[in-house]
Amino acid sequence: MSNLAIKAGRKLFERNLEQYQPADPMYETYIDKKGRERRRRRETPPGLSKRDAKILKSVQRRAHYLDKGFSLCGLRFGWTFIIGIIPGAGDVADAALNYLLVVRKAKQVEIPGWLLRQMLLNNAVSAGVGFIPFVGDLFIATYKANSRNAALLEEFLRIRGEEFLKAERERVQDPQNVKPGAGREPGEHVPGKQERTQSGISGWFRRGSKDSKKGKNKAPATGSPAAAPSADRGRFVEDVPPSGNNGKQA
Question: pTM of the predicted model, to two decimals?
């Protein structure tokens, strides 16, 4: 009975902690067919270039291990919490790791200034409170600045991908701010995007027009025998006797 009470209390403690913690930047939970909770890797938002998708996965992986790589009594923590236990030097090291491994990497996708300032603010809050002995370490373990910054980057790139997949006249975000299609290499195809050919028609319609032209321009081969008349051709023609019968003209 005591074991059941401990498990129930631990579950309640975990649910309360989830209200104050950001989501895992690398994994998401789902319910399988048997009603059990499972974990899987987050899907990359559609419409991103290979460069942006690669950088986003790298930031999510680094943030996960810095903030949520370990679990103890329902509390998920990472290397920032472990290093931050060292007085003074640990807090400085945490702030340096948060910037070098997450924020500086995120800057490679050409994020706008307001987003960079928000990420730096998250790091400043985490570093400032982290100097408070013990309480600061617990705050770092629950605040998880890297996970927050990874979530900001994912949401920004999701909007960038959505804008890129839209037609130019349908876009609602400022292209100078969002930069749809940023990081694409010459000739790189982004799944879900209808590319336009030189004639201004997408490939799907172009293939259809070619097939239709082939059907229209297809002529019978020269020298082929003429089509034989159908056996039923004279069925609706009145029978006329030959002119030589009975010496009379028809």
Answer: 0.69
